Amino acid sequence: LRRNRPADAKCVDCSADRPEWASVTNGVFLCLTCSGRHRGLGVHISFVRSVTMDAWKPEQLRAMELGGNELFQHMLQENGFLGSSF
């Protein structure tokens, strides 16, 4: 997936290179530090999986195929959340 989508080669939250974690809920890729923050939100907000260490269900892989960092950031921007501080 990441080879076909350049935006997925960086953490969606902090832009760190080569993220090794993913939020299945949001369909985005995350670095280790940001994955910890997402885990702290709870699985009902952001269900986090390791790209390499965890087993993935077909529906989780499909969620990642349909998502991606660029699409998620576009959605945030359209709804006025990108660049906001919470």
Structural description of this entry:
With 86 residues, this protein is α+β, with helices and mostly antiparallel strands. Helices cover 34% and strands 10% of the residues. It has helices spanning 32-41, 58-66, 69-78, and strands at 21-23, 28-30, 48-50. A three-stranded antiparallel sheet has the order 2-1-3.
Topology of helices and strands:
Blueprint: E1 21-23, E2 28-30, H1 32-41, E3 48-50, H2 58-66, H3 69-78
Antiparallel strand pairs: 1-2, 1-3
- Unreliable spans: none
Characterize the overall form.
globular
Strand order of the largest sheet: 2-1-3
**β-sheet strand percentage:** 5-15%
Features:
86 residues; alpha+beta; 3 helices; 34% helix; globular
Short description:
The chain contains 3 helices and 3 strands; from the N terminus they run E-E-H-E-H-H.
